[in-house]
Amino acid sequence: MEHQKTQHVAVVGAGIIGICCALNLQRAGFMVTLYDENGLAQGCSKGNAGHFATEQVFPLAHPSLLTKLPAMLLNPLGPLHIDWRYIFKALPWFWQFIKNMPTKTYHANTQALKALNQQAIPAYERLLNDYELGHLLTKKGSLLTFETTSLNKIKSLLHSYIAQGINVELLDAEQVQLLEPNLSKSIRYALLFKDVAHSVDPHLFCLHLAEQFSTLGGQFCQQKITAVHQTTQGYELISQTQTNMADKVVIAAGAWSKALLKPLGYKVPLDTERGYHCMLASDYGLARPVASAERSFIMTPMSQGLRLAGTVEFAGIKRKMNNKRALALLPNARALLHTSTASLHAKSTWMGCRPSLPDSLPVIGCAPNHDNLYFAFGHQHLGLTQGAVTAELITALCLNRPPQIDIHPYCVSRFSTQPACSKAQPHAQ
Fold this sequence. Notes:
Blueprint: E1 8-12, H1 16-27, E2 31-35, H2 44-47, E3 51-52, H3 64-74, E4 80-82, H4 87-99, H5 103-129, E5 142-146, H6 151-163, E6 168-172, H7 173-179, E7 189-193, E8 197-198, H8 202-215, E9 219-221, E10 225-231, E11 234-239, E12 243-246, E13 248-251, H9 257-261, E14 271-280, E15 290-292, E16 297-302, E17 305-314, H10 323-327, H11 329-336, E18 346-356, E19 363-366, E20 373-377, H12 383-398
Parallel strand pairs: 1-2, 1-13, 2-9, 4-17, 5-15, 13-20
Antiparallel strand pairs: 3-8, 5-7, 6-7, 10-11, 11-12, 14-17, 14-18, 15-16, 16-17, 19-20
Helix pairs in contact: 1-8, 1-12, 5-12
């Protein structure tokens, strides 16, 4: 019997999604080349909050947000900022965002997010344990703290999480202090999410996975892919200096995926939530990620200090970093930490472009109008969380096997009248 040629897969984008897809595909027997203009994990995968946030099963598009938006936008140091020069470009995205607020749509999107998040950490465990890298996941849970919110509202939120199967416990002020004695006593209550995890160095986390990919024979090519063309022989990947060929292509280019899809006939309402972080030199004794419900930010202890993150800015991909957005996180940390405010100063700041879709769901699946073309982008705040499970789904599709969950909700066709890819229909039970 004639030996079957090993298929070559090109993965465009070397963030956590692309790295996980490339590694999983290489493990599955494909010959994989990973492409990225800027190197390995140089975007949001480098500067994110390091939180494997499997508790975040609720889409951002909720009607209650409408009443909060004016105050958020009027506060120059608040959690949300829209650059006035970008307002008109952002309006179509926000209109789609509002259209995802009705109860039926919100419930469907919640179930789709939950399906991914339920498999997120198990998928990482399967991947990491094969390489004795399980220690890269720190499993101490996370806290969502409350300073002024009423107990009734907190209990209502608690029951919402429990109804979705989230392992969560309500703590009072004394229990919070016992768990994290360096938090401010202004915290009256907290929700402890027990099954989440965090990374003490998200960039190094990505590099460890990329190292395994390389060890297995995978190739990384630091090139900017400007276009993808289908031919009778497969796909041409056009860069500024050369053209490369592949049998299959996975687009995992985050916020830059939209430009690659448009010439292929796929229009997606993908925009950029520019995220910021501010690093402190010390972790201030915190053992786990601590988020604030009222202040809408998160603090994660890392090997190089404490990372403050959580702010959102709509200003497009090209505009320069607005350092005020990163430094605006400092007053929140001063309020939540039981320490001398004089010791809290920024060690470094950072900005990255989160690829965000208005329904809070990523695009995962095969291209409806192109064979052997696959999409894995738009993970918004959950790229780190959903990297491994996305890789398992993409690998199953590339192997022509049914994915472990129904991937209809993530199909690119949800944004158009295009028929869903038939491969998205079956799923493992």
